[in-house]
Amino acid sequence: MTEEYEKCPICNRDMIPGKSLDDHHLIPRTFKGKDQITLHKVCHRKLHSCITEREMLHHYHTVERLTEHEEIQKFVKWIKKKDPEFYSGSKETKGRKSKRRR
């Protein structure tokens, strides 16, 4: 992660260095993606709970497209009222559940 933090590109809340931040590959590592953005862990989990890696590869590979997703827009309306270090887990997509390491 980079050391300079401003606003989360998904929810536009302040980013505070620490456990509440995570890196997101715009094109999933599964598909050899290298470009990353830093965002809140809760925002990162939400992205992966409602968008599959294949959808990210083919359509949702920019911040602009990610924030156009209807579920993400609803999430942003809800999360913007929360503290910048707030974290609550999200359900994983069916595709991610089957790939989770045990």
Automatic annotation (TrEMBL):
The name this protein goes by in its record: HNH domain-containing protein
